[in-house]
Amino acid sequence: MLHAMTRVNKLLDHKDYSLYMERINHLEKERIFCKHGFEHGLGVARIAYSYLLEKGEVSLGKEVIYAAALLHDIGRWVEYQTGEDHAEVSARLALPLLKECGFSPEDTQAIVVGIKEHRRHHDDDLSLLGEALAIADDWARDCRYCSAQNQCYKFSPAMKQIVY
Q: Domain of life here (predicted)?
């Protein structure tokens, strides 16, 4: 039997999540680099989940991993407008959504910490979810075939080494 992921579905249907995705899509309409809409979040969710399964880490649960990945960039639109770090904004915006969608305080804490850490790729003190999100955020980018490679600050020779 498939797991319904009820809380994640509530999250995806939440009016504020939809509003944040619309704002991001509008502000990234002309962007030549990677975009940060639903498809990116879903890619990060799938990769983070697979990564943790391969490590034998099942303590977080699929819904927690997917919720964190789908929410990790929801503050991008604020960063575009004010310059505030989108990881911090995303964590702040995620809090009421997680509560309204039925995530426990423990799950919410793990998700918020993971979201805040998703940009700290090389830190040794990342949470398990933060590590998975940071890795998946990179792996979800199609840098190998991107036409904007030469202009992108994210692209490096190491990105070519990612095995899909």
A: Bacteria
What residue spans define the domains of the chain?
A: 6-160
CA–CA separation, 141 vs 144, rounded Å? Answer: 8
H or E segment and range at residue 14: none
- Give the pTM: 0.86
Residues contacting 115, CB < 8 A, separation 6+:
68, 71, 72, 87, 90, 91, 94, 133
The CA-CA-CA angle for residues 133, 42, 122, to 5°, reads: 15
CATH topology of domain 6-160: Hypothetical protein af1432 (1.10.3210)
